[in-house]
Amino acid sequence: MAEPVNGWEARGKPPTLFKRFEFARYAETRAFLDALAELAEQVGTHPQNINFGSTYANITLEAGNGESLTETEYALARRIDGLIVSGG
């Protein structure tokens, strides 16, 4: 298994990574979601589930092979985290 990623939870069946991102304002949430959509198109991999409200976004990444989380999912999680650091 790959290294854990800051704040992401590895969950059971099916294997997923989950993280909740919180923001001060809707504009920040929207900017994050727009950057996430751009990243997903760029890398050709999309989160399995995105749930959001005015000031949060819950992101779930599913194991691409359906059996276990791989470095691919962990690398995507790190890139998603980078959207916050870089401001999108």
Structure description:
This protein is of the alpha+beta class and 88 residues long. 38% of the residues lie in helices and 25% in strands. A 4-stranded antiparallel sheet has the order 1-2-4-3, covered by helices on one side. Strand 1 (9-11) and strand 2 form a beta hairpin. Helix 1 (26-43) packs antiparallel against helix 2. The longest helix is centred in the middle third of the chain and has 18 residues, at 26-43. It is globular and about 35 Å long. The mean pLDDT is 89.
SSE inventory with pairings:
Elements lengths: L8 E3 L4 E7 L3 H18 L5 E5 L2 E7 L8 H15 L3
Q: What proportion of the residues form beta strands (DSSP E)? A: 25-35%
- Give the tally of β-strands: 4
N- to C-terminal separation?
Answer: 28 Å
Low-confidence stretches: none
The value of Rg in angstroms is 12 Å
CATH H-level superfamily title: Transcriptional coactivator/pterin dehydratase
SS field, number of helical segments: 2
